[in-house]
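SAMPLE LOG
Freezer: B-3
Tube label: C17
Construct: single chain, 168 aa
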Amino acid sequence: MPSERVPVRVGITGHINLTSATELLVAEAIRVELLRISDQPVHGVTCLAAGTDQIFARVLVDCGGTYEVILPAPDYRDTIAAARRAAFDELLDRATEVIHTGHRTSGTAAYVAANRQLLLRVQRLLAVWDGAPGCHDASTDRMVGWARERGIPTTVIWPADARRTREA
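STRUCTURE (predicted):
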């Protein structure tokens, strides 16, 4: 009797402020990369931030995969724009597991802790990143650097014509 393979565990990091057109480009690029990584559904690890993380979660579900969520702090949902909270709630409800960092409030320290926890749980990392340096310790560039330091294979995704919005 053949044994069932364990799904590849893939983490995500990336920009939250993507244009609508870029969100579509990124979703397709993530889909292509997930199919390249594995011929079976993967298990994702995400902090479920707006933008990249939520796109990743939706693509995983569409591809038959699953995901777990690392919440930086109990008030994390409150940091998401009110118009996007319903989408966050829906995706959070679909998670196979929710992990808490132990931080009481959201902020850079909690985000760094969540990012480091994510890296402990994955075999690969996808980074939706335009290559620009970040402005705080939990930025995408820091996450890519930490993953590479740990020897985690990291794929940077930034499709041609991708753009960020001006909002934070």
